[in-house]
Amino acid sequence: MLMMIGxxxxxxxxxxxxxxxIVNARGEELVPVQSAPVxxxxxxxxxxxxxxxEAKREPWYRGITVGVGAGALSGATGEIGYRIPYxxxxxxxxxxxxxxxxxxxxxxxxxxxxxxxxTDKEDIELGIDVKGQQFxxxxxxxxxxxxxxxxxxxxxxxxxxxxxxxxxxxxxxxxVSGTALADGLGTPNVPTGATLEYTGTGGATAQAQLSxxxxxxxxxxxxxxxxxxxxxxxxxxxxxxxTRAPQIDGKLGHAYGQIDSVCIAGGECLDPANxxxxxxxxxxxxxxxxxDAQLAEADKEMQDIKKEFNDSLSKFGYFPIxxxxxxxRF
Length: 330
Hints:
Layout: E1 2-6, E2 13-16, E3 31-32, H1 40-56, E4 64-71, E5 75-83, E6 95-103, H2 108-119, E7 124-141, E8 153-181, E9 195-229, E10 232-242, E11 247-264, E12 269-270, H3 281-313, E13 318-329
Antiparallel strand pairs: 1-2, 1-3, 4-5, 4-13, 5-6, 6-7, 7-8, 8-9, 9-10, 9-11, 10-13, 11-12
């Protein structure tokens, strides 16, 4: 029969009780002892912990996520991801993976309409066109794992490829008015030398651009992934792609003018389309010449401003990403 034995100077050893007695170096016989049983409370506690972990463990497919969102420069976002379900592994509880695609195209027209609503009273028409799309592969690290509340925090790293260009067409106009003498050539039933009162529109065009060109670089950011209900989650991300610095460009277009209405002083109004082209040629030419002179002066100032901006932006080699989204976890 095998039993556990112990002594005053030796560790517990396993022995056969039918064999010869074993003595230590001082000639003392080792007395057989039985091993102490594991306390029931400790065993129960260990079983309870294992049962708790097993109860929280989820099947692999519960980590699949799909989501949509919107960002300030990134536009509309679609993503698919995978967060490793709860397990007894420290690392597995803290990692998630995502693939994202961003496009500004769905927001182009609404943004242009919104800006024109704001500038409607200023006689300025803006045409905004954003060409932006990016694709990213991301890895999330949740420092607190699945701890309630704190587990929503995530640190994100990854890589983005794409482009971003913001183009703005500007059309600024103002109302003009004045008087002219009828020349009799193209104003039937209007005496030569009669005073004509006219109103018109004078304006100018310009273009401006903010361009990142091709975006390619590593991404680092901070975010939240908060559970709501029934698998629905609210997400927030803020970070930047380390890439080339943006550049601004701009150019002034041309001045233009048109006659909107003509009336005989104190009498009837005429259709400008039926009047002589020569009648208001000098007026329009003068209006456009003055506009072009102002544009030339403004263009010099704009080139100086553009250089200052680009010098400042040369230190800003980042493409910022701030977005809010909803995801569903199966």
